[in-house]
Design goal:
The protein has 300 residues and is of the alpha/beta class. The chain has a single domain (8-12, 39-289), classed as Divalent-metal-dependent TIM barrel enzymes (TIM Barrel, Alpha-Beta Barrel), CATH 3.20.20. The chain contains 11 helices and 8 strands. It has helices at residues 8-17, 26-33, 55-63, 84-97, 118-134, 153-173, 185-195, 206-211, 216-223, 247-257, 275-289, and strands at 41-44, 67-71, 100-106, 138-142, 176-180, 200-205, 228-235, 263-267. Strands 1-2-3-4-5-6-7-8 form an 8-stranded parallel barrel, surrounded by 5 helices. The longest helix is centred in the middle third of the chain and has 21 residues, at 153-173.
Length: 300
């Protein structure tokens, strides 16, 4: 469904043009500006045991990553991004360590369900305001645990109604609300079409979708470039490249739909190796798989 006020293609072009913004190191800005650098690599702050904590920025730098997905939580918890001083703290840390905030994430919606909790809708509104101040373009809306909407048509309708109420603000702000759920590609597309706005997309988690038994490589192609806002590179109980997910096939699917953007590491740790060592391995593995394609020589 095409939104009457803003086409998906126009919105996505504007979003891509604004990708390099707040808390971007000069080195990363140069990489993103170079079309051959397709996949900056980040990590979730909670995967570093640093949910809503500023230390995630320095730790990610030590690992060799490009950025961090930062948690936006309930009021007053951790570094509350509703507060200007909290946002300034992140800006200072990014500048100091040459890092970038890849996106925000509302994992708090797993405990305060977006489908039913009136406060959760207000938090999303507040998060959009924080994103504008931080020049962020993507926020993950989580739908797990108490917030799960799988096989819950009534809750899915509630989500559609709430998203419709907030998309005018999201569109005006130029931000994307990324839905991370247990739903199939068909169910995601049904919700996105019902909302009818390019400001609502899928935050695609390869391990979660594989765990549900979906064909992730086909589903990436089915969702397409303009429906996926960001990707969690994830495994359950394995390092990346050592578990169920074939990241070479993920790369092939992304190349086919011409998708570029952040790959954000989540999970993918093992008990017999230290956390930072696991993520150093994960980032090195991802860079080997998602290395820029060789430049095609110019022809006369």
């Amino acid at each position: 469904m095409r939104h009457p006020c803003l086409s998906r293609r126009t919105f996505c072009r504007a979003l891509t043009a604004a990708t390099v913004g707040w808390c971007t190191s000069p080195g990363l800005a140069a990489l993103v500006a170079n079309h051959r650098r397709q996949y900056p690599i980040g990590v979730c702050d909670w995967s570093l045991d640093a949910t809503g904590r500023i230390g995630a920025i320095e730790t990610a730098r030590q690992i060799g990553l490009d950025g961090v997905q930062v948690s936006f939580g309930p009021p007053g918890r951790g570094l509350d991004l509703r507060r200007p001083e909290a946002r300034a703290t992140y800006a200072d840390a990014c500048n100091e360590h040459g890092m970038t905030i890849a996106s925000l994430a509302m994992g708090c919606l797993n405990d305060f369900p977006y489908a039913t909790d009136d406060g959760a809708q207000q938090w999303v509104v507040q998060c959009i305001d924080a994103m504008v101040a931080m020049k962020q373009r993507v926020v993950l809306l989580a739908f797990f645990s108490k917030g799960d909407i799988l096989d819950q048509p009534k809750l899915q309708q509630n989500v559609i109604a709430r998203l419709k109420a907030v998309v005018p603000k999201a569109e005006k702000a130029g931000v994307v609300l990324g839905l991370e759920t247990w739903l199939s590609a068909d169910d995601h597309l049904r919700i996105l079409d019902a909302v009818g706005s390019p400001a609502v997309q899928v935050y695609y988690d390869v391990a979660n979708m594989d765990k549900r038994g979906y064909d992730i490589y086909a589903d990436i192609r089915r969702l397409g470039r303009e429906r996926i806002c960001q990707i969690h590179a994830k495994e359950y109980g394995h390092l990346l490249g050592s578990g169920r997910i074939d990241f070479q096939k993920v790369r092939a699917a992304l190349d086919e739909i011409e998708w570029t953007g952040w790959l954000v590491i989540e999970g993918a740790t093992v008990s017999d190796r230290p956390l930072l060592e696991c993520h150093r391995y994960n980032q090195q593995y991802l860079r080997s798989v998602f290395a820029p394609a060789p430049e095609t020589p110019a022809t006369d």
